[in-house]
Design a protein that fits this description.
The complex is a heterotrimer of chains A (342), B (287) and C (253). Chain A is mainly α and 342 residues long. Helices cover 71% and strands 2% of the residues of chain A. Chain C is built from ten helices and ten strands. Chain C folds into two domains: 1-79 and 167-183 and 197-253, P-loop containing nucleotide triphosphate hydrolases (Rossmann fold, 3-Layer(aba) Sandwich); 87-166, no CATH class. The chains are: A mainly alpha (342), B mainly alpha (287), C alpha/beta (253).
Chain lengths: 342, 287, 253
């Protein structure tokens, strides 16, 4: 109970800090933070597929569907923002189900290749369907987000919206991961044949994880559309999909907080290089070096860094390495202490 | 479409297909042996083109020397990557894929500061036009076909007639058995990386005089290579060759009729259907 | 009527018949052994019976209902559960959680799954898990990670998980492979107790002592075909069976 309170307190502090940062940071930081929040939603929702052992490099396709749907509904039909966002997410989910249903029996690399094909196919459809999406000219004039009729005019206001969306998404995903459903998903990711042999309808659960992931990708896409107010098809490409995957890997694949840490760190850190024009081009270089170093030297992801450091300190003081994952006594609550390396 | 246009499209398709084949061969070889998809293949293509730019266009060396150098340098780079990235990564295929993605991002990002942002062109190497059945094809494009053919033949001989090639085939069939027979899996894997990278570099080098150079130029060829290896069957070399030829024709003929983007879309939709109904492609092995 | 019946069961991989026109019947309450040299098609049979592979031909009936071509999880729902030849566990979960997964079919479903927090699974489920662990002798290991267990315990855990599903018929694929004498005796005794409590058993095993000491009836496969069938004593003295295992001494071209 005590550690749970501590975690909630820490989170409240972080949340407060983010709100304050948005309030005082001005337009520039508000813009940046909003994009970071969007990336967190994308990374955390991709995790659902990854938990089930599906290497999904297609997330940007569904972000695209959410973005264009919401944008077009709001711009051309005057649909209020909340409804447009939900519609965008719903359509993203529907497309996800349509594409996922036949594909989920593919495994490993084959599934990954299908998701890559999805991304490119959707990008090309958007590019070709010029009458609807304006294709490569880009879709502009997308209305700003609004809540209950009130338009969110300023960047900080829109950033609060992003923060809200992120918090709601994370709460839902957290609840899902730590429920029995999450246990089932993880069992599928660990040994899907075994799960099948115990009566788990593996295909249905995989589809559920995939579809929910697509829903939240749609949410992120819809927000993005109304925030940046200009959509350009190549934005939602294979590269973006791989970035979202990388957030998960660099942050840590074995833990709920992994993608969040990864997305926050990798979205935010290049900021350091944004000082002058000369150093700006080094952003991406830094990004990719970080990726490489993390994968090579910290395979569990950044989330394992505190653990490794404490181990290192402990080893120095005690001369022996600490035992892994705490042992819960029988009869107590059953919590999953997955090995972060998993 | 007139008959002349069709012939022209087909020959261009053959030329395109040849470069695609070179990309796809390396990719399928690496998959067959190590079960990884080399996401960095596009970046290697790009680097091959840039070697031509610097050595041939800027420095003034003979084209063939530059070409050979491109293959050599990037082949060596392949060895380095196998040693520094592929081998140290435990934990299977997925972290390796992500590491290769990181490598690609790095190489492409490095491209801008190192190569600069101005447009780069490589001057035509083979001048003149040839006339086939009444239509003109540039010598530049035509040359690609025999060069690629030579490389493919070279690869075939290497895989089937040399000891190293036999080692590769052994590892592809059963890694453990090969290791037990005394095959040094690390060395042969490094060789696969080297050969794969060299072929990708050759592809980029051949296309350098035809397209504008920029650090992202490898993305499209990479995606094409993906399509081909799925069509041909992951791990199958004959599949990569046939797949490359087919896609070259599709890209050329269908693109002329429908436009580039619809043609590309068509190939992706086709691949999705293929993966859903016959993931092993034309010649792939049952997984 | 037999609990499990397979007729004309056939599976071709390309041109090779891994299982060729096999008739198999298991009566309720029996312990039947499925034996044969390596490559005889035993695990393929298991895969066919449990729905992991679709048969090329033949029918499978379980508890009077046809189950040919059903998906594995549907077959499990009817009470036919199998274990795996190679140790397959949820490695990063605790022993308790592994067994908990076995309760999937008997647990809360639908919205209950989402609302049920992992930190407070229903007590009756936890109790049932502990009961299964106690029965299989793994209680002390309940909170250890599956991957930290020694081999013998891992294979026993596989059986425990299958038991949690409450099978009518339990198919065990090489339950004592890799175990020493003590462990294998213990496990085979466990198998007998499982049967005595009402679960029918079909098992594949190479360990002849284990098979002969436990099974009431034995079916012998060779090259995908049924070679012989009968009591352990009868089968072990069958010259065809002996030849299959030891070879006939004829050199192949």
């Amino acid at each position: 109970m005590k550690s749970k309170l501590r975690t909630v307190a820490m989170l409240a502090v972080v949340l407060l800090a983010l709100i304050l940062l948005t309030a005082v940071g001005g337009n520039y930081y508000a813009h940046l933070l909003a994009l970071v929040f969007t990336n967190v939603i994308l990374a955390a929702s991709l995790r659902l597929s990854l938990m089930c052992g599906q290497l999904n490099i297609g997330h940007s396709a569904f972000m695209s569907v959410g973005a264009y749907t919401s944008a077009l509904l709001a711009k051309n039909l005057g649909v209020p923002f909340e409804l447009a966002l939900l519609s965008g997410a719903a359509l993203a989910m529907i497309v996800g189900v349509a594409m996922g249903y036949p594909s989920l029996r593919l495994r490993g690399v084959y599934f990954a290749m299908v998701t890559v094909a999805f991304v490119e196919a959707i990008r090309l459809i958007v590019q070709i369907w010029v009458s609807l999406t304006r294709g490569m000219s880009g879709l502009s004039g997308i209305p700003k987000p609004s809540l209950l009729g009130m338009v969110l005019v300023t960047k900080p206001d829109q950033c609060y919206l992003a923060l809200g969306l992120m918090v709601v998404t994370l709460l839902i995903l957290y609840k899902l991961e730590y429920s029995r459903l999450g246990l089932i998903w993880k069992s599928i990711g660990m040994a899907d044949n075994l799960a099948l042999s115990l009566g788990v309808n593996v295909a249905a659960y995989k589809l559920l994880a995939f579809a929910l992931g697509c829903f939240f990708a749609g949410v992120a896409g819809a927000f993005y559309a109304h925030f940046v107010r200009f959509l350009f098809p190549p934005t939602f490409d294979f590269l973006m999909a791989t970035n979202i995957l990388v957030y998960n890997y660099v942050g840590g694949r074995g833990h709920f907080w992994g993608p969040i840490v990864g997305a926050a760190f990798l979205s935010w850190l290049p900021e350091i290089f944004r000082g002058s024009e000369a150093t700006r081009q080094y952003e991406t270089i830094f990004f990719s070096i970080t990726m490489l170093l993390t994968i090579l030297f910290l395979p569990g992801g950044l989330i394992t860094l505190p653990g490794k450091l404490t181990d290192l300190c402990r080893r120095r003081t005690e001369g022996v390495s600490s035992p892994s994952s705490a042992v819960v006594l029988p009869g107590q609550r059953v919590a999953v202490h997955g090995n972060p390396e998993g | 479409m007139t008959f002349a246009l069709l012939i022209q499209s087909m020959v261009i398709g053959l030329s395109l297909g040849s470069t695609y084949i070179l990309m796809a061969l390396g990719l399928t070889l690496m998959f067959g042996m190590m079960h990884i998809i080399n996401f960095a293949h596009g970046a290697v293509y790009m680097l091959g083109a840039f070697v031509i730019y610097y050595v041939f266009a800027q420095w003034g060396a003979a084209y063939w020397i530059a070409f050979f150098l491109a293959m050599l340098l990037l082949g060596a780079f392949g060895f380095v990557i196998e040693r520094c990235i592929y081998r140290p990564i435990k934990g299977g295929v997925e972290p390796t894929l992500v590491a290769l993605i990181a490598l690609t991002t790095f190489l492409q990002a490095m491209g801008y500061p190192v190569f600069g942002t101005l447009d780069k062109h490589v001057p035509t190497v083979f001048h003149g036009m040839y006339s086939i059945l009444g239509v003109g094809i540039s010598a530049e494009r035509l040359m690609i076909i025999p060069v690629a053919g030579v490389l493919v033949l070279g690869l075939y001989l290497f895989i089937n007639k040399t000891k190293m090639g036999a080692a590769m085939r052994a590892i592809e069939q059963d890694k453990e058995a090969a290791a037990l027979q005394g095959v040094n899996v690390h060395v042969v894997n490094a060789l696969a990386f080297g050969v794969g990278f060299a072929l990708a570099a050759a592809s980029g080098a051949l296309m350098a005089p035809i397209f504008k150079l920029d650090p992202m130029m490898g993305e499209q060829p990479l995606l094409k290579a993906f399509i081909i290896i799925i069509l041909g069957g992951l791990g199958s070399i004959p599949g990569a060759i046939l797949g490359g030829l087919i896609l070259g024709q599709i890209d050329s003929i269908v693109a002329t009729v429908m436009g580039l983007e619809p043609a590309f879309l068509l190939s992706f939709v086709f691949i999705i259907l293929l993966l859903l109904f016959k993931p092993t492609g034309l010649f792939g092995h049952e997984v | 009527m037999p609990l499990l019946e397979a007729q004309n069961l056939t599976k071709y991989f390309g041109g090779l018949a891994a299982v060729n026109r096999v008739d198999l019947a298991v009566e309720e309450g029996e312990i039947v052994g499925l034996i044969g040299p390596n490559g005889a098609g035993k695990t393929t049979c298991f895969n066919l019976l449990s729905g992991f592979l679709p048969p090329t031909a033949g029918t499978i009936t379980f508890h009077g209902q046809p189950v040919t071509g059903l998906k594995p999880h549907h077959i499990v729902a009817r009470g036919l559960v199998r274990t795996f030849q190679h140790t397959t566990l949820f490695q990063d979960m605790t022993v308790l959680q592994n067994v908990l997964m076995g309760l999937h079919l008997h647990s809360q479903r639908g919205l209950g799954q989402v609302l049920c927090s992992r930190r407070s699974f229903p007590q009756h489920e936890i109790d049932r898990c502990y009961a299964v662990l106690a029965f299989t002798g793994l209680v002390e290991l309940a909170d250890q990670l599956a991957k930290s267990l020694p081999h013998g315990h891992q294979r026993t855990l596989g059986i425990a998980m299958a038991l949690a599903v409450r099978p009518r018929l339990l198919m065990l694929d090489e339950p004592v492979t890799g175990m020493n004498l003590d462990e294998s005796l213990r496990v085979m005794q466990l198998v007998k107790t499982i049967r005595d409590r009402g679960t029918t058993i079909l098992l594949v095993e190479h360990n002849m002592k284990a098979v002969m000491g436990t099974c009431e009836r034995v079916v012998v496969l060779n090259f995908g075909q049924k070679l012989a069938e009968g009591t352990p004593a009868a089968v072990s003295s069958n010259p065809d069976v002996i030849a299959a295992y030891l070879g006939t001494g004829v050199t192949h071209a």
